[in-house]
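Hi all, posting the design record for the shared folder.

TITLE: backbone redesign
STEP: 1 of 1
STRUCTURE INPUT:
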């Protein structure tokens, strides 16, 4: 009988917080033409000669400062999401294989797809952990899946989940995460001017001009989340972080906004990253350390970084429902629980015939 699987795909992480491993990871990441959209003959000498020798050591120190006992935060949280999703599906009678892979680094997309196919899975849902679509994230993950299938003779059926930036279940999970933080740490006093920033990963302005929908989707996610939290535009702003290089990036920029808020006398700012489904170096270090230091340096008093949705129950609910939305299109997929029911019914029918 057909067997189904779901593969979660996240960005990637070094295998260890060392300059060597960071160098290897960044070399793969920054060599992707969808990430750095310039001729490789021009970019590679710059990357190998200037970027990697200096950036690898600095990034390794940052990774080391946030490394968890079981590995990098991104890998730990993504693995927990896969485990929780597998349990969620099993509890609902869906015996679906669940795996996770990284676009850059390990576990690789090709390796995990090969493993799922060897386990008998011939229908696979590809679920990128990027709610908002961008060519440099979602599209390159799909590219890698297609590249892996190019080496397979008997290919499985595949369904891709392109985006879920406005899905009500995803928005609800985001709102729940913020409310849980406020329950523990208190809600900002917006009447005195406290602020909420929704910080998304940045993107070069040229990518938007070429037709990438990412910016508009981030704004819609921000508006829907603000509405769910009953916040208006005066209290909740969408900003963008993690700029790289000298080209123009979409804004307003998170770091600059934090400096402006601190200098203007804002007492408290809460920063949440709705576009990141798992905490990583961009949220834990760039926001939680660098962002905090910037805000306090410029005069702010109280800084809060709100954890990403990670493996929270509402987000796993959202992932589960997104998966079921795709599985229902495959009427031929029979889960183990359904097989048991069919065997039982068949046995009962045979017994009736014998009785007659």
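Okay, here is what came back for every position:
SEQUENCE:
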């Amino acid at each position: 009988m057909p067997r189904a699987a779901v593969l979660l795909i996240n960005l990637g992480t070094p295998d260890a917080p060392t300059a060597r491993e960071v160098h290897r990871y960044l070399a793969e990441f920054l060599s992707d033409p969808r990430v750095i959209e310039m001729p490789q003959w021009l970019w590679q000498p710059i990357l190998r000669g200037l970027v990697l020798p200096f950036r690898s050591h600095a990034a390794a120190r940052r990774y080391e400062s946030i490394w968890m006992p079981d590995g990098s935060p991104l890998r730990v949280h993504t693995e927990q999401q896969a485990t929780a999703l597998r349990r969620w599906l099993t509890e609902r009678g869906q015996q679906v294989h669940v795996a996770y892979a990284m676009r850059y680094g390990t576990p690789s997309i090709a390796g995990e797809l090969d493993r799922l196919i060897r386990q008998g899975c011939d229908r696979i849902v590809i679920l990128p952990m990027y709610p908002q679509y961008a060519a440099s994230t979602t599209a390159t993950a799909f590219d890698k899946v297609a590249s892996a299938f190019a080496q397979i003779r008997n290919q499985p059926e595949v369904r891709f989940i392109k985006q879920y930036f406005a899905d009500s279940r995803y928005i609800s999970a985001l709102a729940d995460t913020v409310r849980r933080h406020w329950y523990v740490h208190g809600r900002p006093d917006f009447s005195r001017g406290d602020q909420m920033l929704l910080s998304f990963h940045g993107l070069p302005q040229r990518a938007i001009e070429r037709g990438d929908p990412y910016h508009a989707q981030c704004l819609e996610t921000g508006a829907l989340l603000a509405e769910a939290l009953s916040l208006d535009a005066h209290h909740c702003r969408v900003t963008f972080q993690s700029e790289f290089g000298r080209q123009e990036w979409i804004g307003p920029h998170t770091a600059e906004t934090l400096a402006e808020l601190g200098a203007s006398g804002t007492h408290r700012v809460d920063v949440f990253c709705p576009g990141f489904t798992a905490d990583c170096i961009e949220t834990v270090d760039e926001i939680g350390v660098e962002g905090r230091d910037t805000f306090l340096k410029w005069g702010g008093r109280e800084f809060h970084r709100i954890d990403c949705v990670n493996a929270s129950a509402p987000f796993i609910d959202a992932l589960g429902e997104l998966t079921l939305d795709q599985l229902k299109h495959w009427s031929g997929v029979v889960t183990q629980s359904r097989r048991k029911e069919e065997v039982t019914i068949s046995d009962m029918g045979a017994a009736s015939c014998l009785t007659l």
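COMMENT: The radius of gyration is 23 Å.
Let me know if anyone wants the other runs.
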